[in-house]
Amino acid sequence: MEVKAYGIGVAVAYPPDTDTPGFERENVGKPEVTRLIGEDAGGLFSPTQVAATMVKGLKAGDFCITLGGEGYLVGLATAGFAPCFSVSRALCQVLSAGVLRAASFYYNWRFYAMAAAEKRRKDVSSAAASVTD
């Protein structure tokens, strides 16, 4: 906001899981439930897809740059006080806010349920291992 008068734009990009060597290294020690939630939340994107979307968003002057259907919906749902320079995007944000807030309850429930199921699986495995010792 402070630099816009000087012709300087600011953008925030929210890249999804991206198929890179760094992501492969991250997966080595990643908890299983984190991997499952990531897959459920949109899956894996190629670096080319991510870069192209970011460049397109920068060229368009977007403040919030997201990728994929889930990313777009989360961007709409979490717009809050973020600047918006498009009338159509502003309308989408305002008109979808209530519906997307309701949808967020489902996603939160689903992700918490996945975490609880993973804990139960670990507890059963741990109990079975202690019985065989």
TrEMBL record:
GO terms for molecular function: 3-dehydrosphinganine reductase activity. GO terms for biological process: 3-keto-sphinganine metabolic process; sphingolipid biosynthetic process. It comes from Ectocarpus siliculosus (Brown alga). One of its GO terms (cellular component) is endoplasmic reticulum membrane. It comes from the Eukaryota. This is Similar to follicular lymphoma variant translocation 1. Coiled coil: none annotated.
